[in-house]
Amino acid sequence: MEDKEIVERILSGDTEQYTLIVRRYQQIVANLTYKLCGTRLEIEEVTQQVFVELYMALPRFRFDSKLSSYIYRITVNVVSKMLNKSKRFVSSDEWENPPEEVSTDRNAEQQIIHNEQMDALRTAIGHLKDEQRTALILYTFEDFSYNQIAEVMQCSLAKVESLIFRAKKNLAKELKN
Amino acid sequence: MNIDEQLKQLAQQTCPKQVDVVDSVMAEVRKHPYLQPVAKPAVRKVRWVPWASLTAVAAAAGLVVVNLTPAVAATYNEEQIGSMMASVADYNYYAPVESAAENPIDYLYDDYSDEY
Predict the structure, then answer these.
(1) ipTM field
(2) Which of A79, A110, A151, B9 would you call most buried, defined as having the most Cβ atoms within 10 angstroms of its Cβ?
(3) How big is chain A by its Cα radius of gyration, in Å?
């Protein structure tokens, strides 16, 4: 069933249909939340909050854009609010390390250097300003186009370009140091 | 390795856990019944319209009105009645019903004297 049809049913009173939307998008929201927060601790809390806010906002959604874009926008907002509230963002100390990457192309020494580089990069991402980090993560990790990012972040294309440019510049500067 | 290559590698590494928030979300959703279908407002009955005004407007609209009793009015479809009611509402805004009731047609002509 298409998103639009499900939403129409929900707005007609069949609220149980909302489970289809949650099942369809919960992992996408969780993935983005993890990348924006850098920790798994709040993933479920944020994901739940995103879907509650989406439900409240459904009557205002006119399908001028994709539902997925709308969900991304809410996710970014919820994460931003949560990070502002807790006065902390992706922390270099808290960004949980993913399972160590094992490459057959690298020897042990190269692997250690590689893992250190990745840790340093995570740390640097954590030090970026919220907007820069969000734009960079959507562009790099989620493969969003500049237009999609502008839609999600509710800003101009020029600002997105500027945010990503500055984010990369700041990362390069920090890594160099 | 430049920044773009490092970011690409980092993107491949991220590995979030699986989540299932369906039950918790639906528990919240069920607390907010405001999205339940709202009953449509009942269509106002013709008898609510001042009878003289309805007659006047029907006449002004070129309808042959012999006796616009409720039984006759019932022969109009919903759209016609709705249109008449809207006209009456506008008309009443400018002209007291009592005045129109005394001599509806003359009153209408007087009201729009510039046009005639």
Answers:
(1) 0.74
(2) A79
(3) 18
